[in-house]
Amino acid sequence: MKNKPLHNLVDEGGIIAPARTKRDSDNRMIAARPQPRKKSQVETKNQLGAQYDGLPGSCDRPTGPDDSWRRIAAARAPAFDQSVPAYLLDEKYWFLDWNPAFDELVACPLGLKRLRNHAEDFIRELVNVEAVYQRSKKIFDPKNVPLIDVEPLVFHTEKYGDVEFEKIAVQISDAHAQLASWCVYLNITRAHRLEEMWDDLRASLESHLNWSRYALSYDKLLLNFDDYFDLVDLVVGKVSNCKRCLDLGAGTGNGTIKLLEADLDRNVWAIESNQAMIQQLISKLEKSEVEAGCDYFGRLHVLKENLLRLDDVKDILSPGSYDGAILINVLYAVEDPEKCLRQIFRLLQAGGRLVLSTSHRNTDVDKLFMRMQDVLERKNLFSQLSPNFHDARERHKKMEALIHRDTQQDIRGYLEGAGFRIVDWREKEYADAVVVVEALKP
Ligand SMILES: C[S@@+](CC[C@H](N)C(=O)[O-])C[C@H]1O[C@@H](n2cnc3c(N)ncnc32)[C@H](O)[C@@H]1O
After folding, report:
1. Strand (E) positions, 113-214?
2. Contact 324 CB / ligand 1 (< 6 Å)
């Protein structure tokens, strides 16, 4: 056992072992029910051999297969976001979406836009553009499109010099077995400043993952936290006359739903950059639509975009055409708050109203969580939600520096620097954790 290669061990573990068969009373071959396996050495010893202590977890082989398909299905979709740079193209090679690593390395520096840029726009920027172009013309023959395509790409970046990728593009089929889209992975094979690049990629993935993880606890906690409802009510109430509203950093969509519910003539643009948050928003809206018997999606426009790149999507969000914007607990998380506010200013029409809530230097996160615990305990929900509560606290710890980055004076400065006139300023909302500001575009 000690010297066997790893794939044999996996085989013996039964995960990919051939199905066993037995015969029924008519001597027909039928699949045998899997027998409970005896505890073997594989389960109790690590896989590296007696001379090693073993890596964490190696002695606790998963049970199953049983419902492993559930775990596999749950892991596959988010896995796209946490992998090497990767993107999705439609069947005509237009960008549908990409993951945070591609965003950091390619989409952001090139200013790519989803649904607006074609693969050509990326190819044009490659160091080996000529070879890639000539090859693509030959390989991607519309009458005989390959299932898979592999080729080297070289992309020049300001920060890391030339980056070399081994591209693997695979077809994704629709329910009728027709080409629906392409999934393209860029495996990084070389870069001039490789270490620096991986450090940056890791930081960006970590920050993205922090939001994705928070997306799972967010509603479980906050939809039971009255102070949060009060905050959303207060903010949405301040744009009550507005018919074309932006919900910026919409998260799981609590502001968006409130905006849609409160005025049936209102259109809402929900802008959010995190896929896990968007997924929560969509599934919640689908449910709310059925429950309320209202058409929400006819008045809702969801855009996956970074709030620092709103100027780049003028053909989707037209400048000067919105009368209201809300930004609930988002500004602290944005890298360049004044740049973000300047872009919101350009989107609003004259007289348009921005209402935001955000943390500041004196925000007491412990006090906020104590208050939340108090409310949940009063509702007898705390023990049930305790894993989410502790996870949410962890998410906040990772963002500690961002949460406390700005003084109230800084926030005032960002707003006025962007051109807004502040008409209301409150400091006592949401367990005193945020300022709520109402500002007008003169
Ligand atoms: C604390 S949540 C608030 C969500 C929502 N506004 C609410 O009221 O519940 C912050 C949200 O801002 C989003 N966000 C942070 N930075 C962003 C950026 N640069 N562009 C777009 N969304 C961003 C996060 O993904 C997250 O969903």
Report:
1. 148-157, 161-173, 179-191
2. no
